[in-house]
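pinging the channel bc i need a second pair of eyes. not urgent but kinda urgent?? the chain im working w is below, pasted from the shared doc
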Amino acid sequence: MRSTPLLALAALATLLPACVSVPAPVADPRARGPFMPQSQMPLMPNIARIAPSEGCQGEPLSAVHAPLPDYPARGWARGEQGWSIVQFDVAQSGAVENVRIAQGVPGRFFDREARRAVQAWRFAALGEGAHLTGCTVMFEFVLGQVRIR
Protein backbone atom coordinates (compact mmCIF):
# COMPACT_ATOMS: atom_id res chain seq x y z
CA MET A 1 0.00 0.00 0.00
CA ARG A 2 1.41 3.40 -0.99
CA SER A 3 1.38 6.24 1.51
CA THR A 4 -0.47 9.37 0.46
CA PRO A 5 1.41 12.68 0.74
CA LEU A 6 0.05 15.05 3.39
CA LEU A 7 -0.86 17.63 0.77
CA ALA A 8 -3.05 15.12 -1.00
CA LEU A 9 -4.65 14.18 2.33
CA ALA A 10 -5.32 17.85 3.10
CA ALA A 11 -6.97 18.28 -0.33
CA LEU A 12 -9.01 15.13 0.25
CA ALA A 13 -10.17 16.42 3.65
CA THR A 14 -11.80 19.41 1.97
CA LEU A 15 -13.96 17.00 -0.06
CA LEU A 16 -14.97 14.85 2.93
CA PRO A 17 -17.53 15.71 5.61
CA ALA A 18 -16.50 18.16 8.35
CA CYS A 19 -16.02 15.35 10.88
CA VAL A 20 -12.82 14.21 9.15
CA SER A 21 -9.65 15.94 10.27
CA VAL A 22 -6.15 15.68 8.93
CA PRO A 23 -3.35 16.40 11.40
CA ALA A 24 -1.10 19.27 10.42
CA PRO A 25 2.50 18.18 9.83
CA VAL A 26 4.97 19.22 12.52
CA ALA A 27 8.01 20.35 10.55
CA ASP A 28 10.17 21.22 13.55
CA PRO A 29 10.70 18.29 15.96
CA ARG A 30 11.52 20.77 18.75
CA ALA A 31 7.78 21.51 18.87
CA ARG A 32 7.09 17.89 19.86
CA GLY A 33 8.75 18.10 23.26
CA PRO A 34 12.08 17.95 25.07
CA PHE A 35 15.33 16.72 23.53
CA MET A 36 15.84 13.00 24.13
CA PRO A 37 19.53 12.06 23.74
CA GLN A 38 20.13 8.86 21.81
CA SER A 39 23.92 9.20 21.63
CA GLN A 40 26.77 10.17 23.89
CA MET A 41 28.53 13.47 23.30
CA PRO A 42 31.60 12.71 21.15
CA LEU A 43 34.99 13.27 22.76
CA MET A 44 36.27 16.83 22.50
CA PRO A 45 39.10 17.34 20.03
CA ASN A 46 42.42 19.13 20.34
CA ILE A 47 41.28 22.26 18.51
CA ALA A 48 44.77 23.76 18.15
CA ARG A 49 45.99 20.61 16.38
CA ILE A 50 42.97 20.30 14.06
CA ALA A 51 42.62 24.00 13.19
CA PRO A 52 45.67 26.14 13.98
CA SER A 53 44.78 29.84 14.07
CA GLU A 54 48.12 31.67 13.98
CA GLY A 55 46.87 34.02 11.24
CA CYS A 56 44.01 35.26 13.43
CA GLN A 57 46.15 37.23 15.89
CA GLY A 58 47.16 40.81 16.47
CA GLU A 59 43.88 42.52 15.63
CA PRO A 60 40.97 42.42 18.11
CA LEU A 61 37.64 41.18 16.82
CA SER A 62 34.47 42.95 17.93
CA ALA A 63 31.31 41.14 16.90
CA VAL A 64 28.55 43.25 15.41
CA HIS A 65 26.32 40.29 14.50
CA ALA A 66 27.21 36.74 15.58
CA PRO A 67 24.18 34.48 16.09
CA LEU A 68 24.67 30.91 17.25
CA PRO A 69 23.61 28.15 14.87
CA ASP A 70 20.25 26.49 15.33
CA TYR A 71 20.23 22.96 16.70
CA PRO A 72 19.56 21.01 13.51
CA ALA A 73 16.04 19.60 13.35
CA ARG A 74 17.38 16.22 12.16
CA GLY A 75 19.86 16.05 15.02
CA TRP A 76 17.12 16.95 17.49
CA ALA A 77 14.71 14.35 16.07
CA ARG A 78 17.39 11.64 16.22
CA GLY A 79 18.68 12.68 19.66
CA GLU A 80 22.18 13.21 18.24
CA GLN A 81 24.91 15.32 19.78
CA GLY A 82 28.18 16.54 18.31
CA TRP A 83 30.52 19.40 17.55
CA SER A 84 31.81 21.39 14.61
CA ILE A 85 35.07 23.30 14.28
CA VAL A 86 34.74 26.16 11.81
CA GLN A 87 37.57 28.24 10.36
CA PHE A 88 37.06 31.57 8.63
CA ASP A 89 38.84 34.72 7.55
CA VAL A 90 37.88 38.30 8.40
CA ALA A 91 38.34 41.05 5.80
CA GLN A 92 39.34 44.59 6.74
CA SER A 93 35.67 45.59 6.41
CA GLY A 94 34.69 43.07 9.13
CA ALA A 95 33.01 40.70 6.65
CA VAL A 96 33.52 36.97 7.13
CA GLU A 97 35.09 35.13 4.20
CA ASN A 98 36.23 31.62 3.29
CA VAL A 99 34.11 29.79 5.86
CA ARG A 100 35.10 26.14 6.03
CA ILE A 101 34.62 23.18 8.35
CA ALA A 102 37.92 22.01 9.82
CA GLN A 103 36.27 18.96 11.38
CA GLY A 104 32.91 17.92 12.73
CA VAL A 105 31.51 14.91 14.56
CA PRO A 106 29.17 13.48 13.45
CA GLY A 107 29.28 16.24 10.82
CA ARG A 108 26.50 16.42 8.24
CA PHE A 109 23.69 18.69 9.40
CA PHE A 110 25.67 19.97 12.42
CA ASP A 111 28.40 21.22 10.07
CA ARG A 112 25.83 22.72 7.73
CA GLU A 113 24.21 24.76 10.55
CA ALA A 114 27.59 25.83 11.94
CA ARG A 115 28.80 27.00 8.51
CA ARG A 116 25.54 28.85 7.85
CA ALA A 117 25.76 30.70 11.18
CA VAL A 118 29.38 31.81 10.72
CA GLN A 119 28.68 32.98 7.17
CA ALA A 120 26.15 35.41 8.68
CA TRP A 121 28.63 36.84 11.21
CA ARG A 122 29.87 40.42 10.92
CA PHE A 123 32.60 42.17 12.88
CA ALA A 124 33.53 45.81 13.35
CA ALA A 125 35.99 47.01 10.70
CA LEU A 126 39.61 46.12 11.32
CA GLY A 127 42.53 48.53 11.19
CA GLU A 128 43.85 49.80 7.86
CA GLY A 129 45.19 46.91 5.77
CA ALA A 130 44.36 44.26 8.39
CA HIS A 131 43.07 40.87 7.27
CA LEU A 132 42.74 37.89 9.63
CA THR A 133 43.05 34.33 8.37
CA GLY A 134 42.27 30.99 9.95
CA CYS A 135 40.12 32.28 12.80
CA THR A 136 38.62 29.30 14.60
CA VAL A 137 35.44 28.66 16.54
CA MET A 138 33.96 25.45 17.87
CA PHE A 139 30.27 24.83 18.36
CA GLU A 140 29.03 22.11 20.69
CA PHE A 141 25.59 20.66 19.98
CA VAL A 142 24.75 19.16 23.37
CA LEU A 143 21.45 18.03 24.88
CA GLY A 144 19.44 20.11 22.44
CA GLN A 145 21.44 23.31 22.99
CA VAL A 146 24.27 25.02 21.12
CA ARG A 147 27.32 26.33 22.94
CA ILE A 148 30.33 28.17 21.59
CA ARG A 149 33.80 27.22 22.70
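so Residues 35 and 76 are 6 Å apart (CA to CA). and The mean pLDDT is 81. — does that match what u expected or am i reading it wrong
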